[in-house]
User: What shape does this take?
Amino acid sequence: MSGREHVRRLALAGALVIGASACAIEGAQPSGGPGPTARETASGAASGASPDRLAPGELAASGQDAFGLPIPRGMTVERRFPDAVHAVGSVEAEAVANFVRARVSTTHVEAGAARTVFPRVSLGADSSRVYRIEVIRERGRTRLVVKDATPPPTTDGLTNEERWRRAGMQPGGAGVDPEQNR
Assistant: This one.
């Protein structure tokens, strides 16, 4: 073996030892701060994104919300009603749908060419409320509609006649007001 080959092998062995040592020291970083654990590194690599960075096309939350659901950045609340919130913006409908999907609990999503509907979702810890969320593609913009779809509470102990009257009807379906029956 020549001297040149011997030096090359020693350099390669030294590099391998240094690399193996660096891998063995968990959490060490040149800055001196604590680094990620092996589990955090593996989960970060698996998700493909750093927790403090957005993936390409991913939307960040703005300071506005609709019943606890953050409104994506780039959208503004256009109308706010007691049971509905309408937000609009020049963002991609697919990105808004993905933003919503990541923040709600639902078992069913209806996706179409012009709109994505989340018919029955829960927001946050209050699972007693039910919401309907629509992401609608419009001309050059996207509309996000969040509606409170919680049914009114049922009143136990009512007779059928009392239920009809509360609905503004007579038993059989005729209106209470004779003018309604025309």
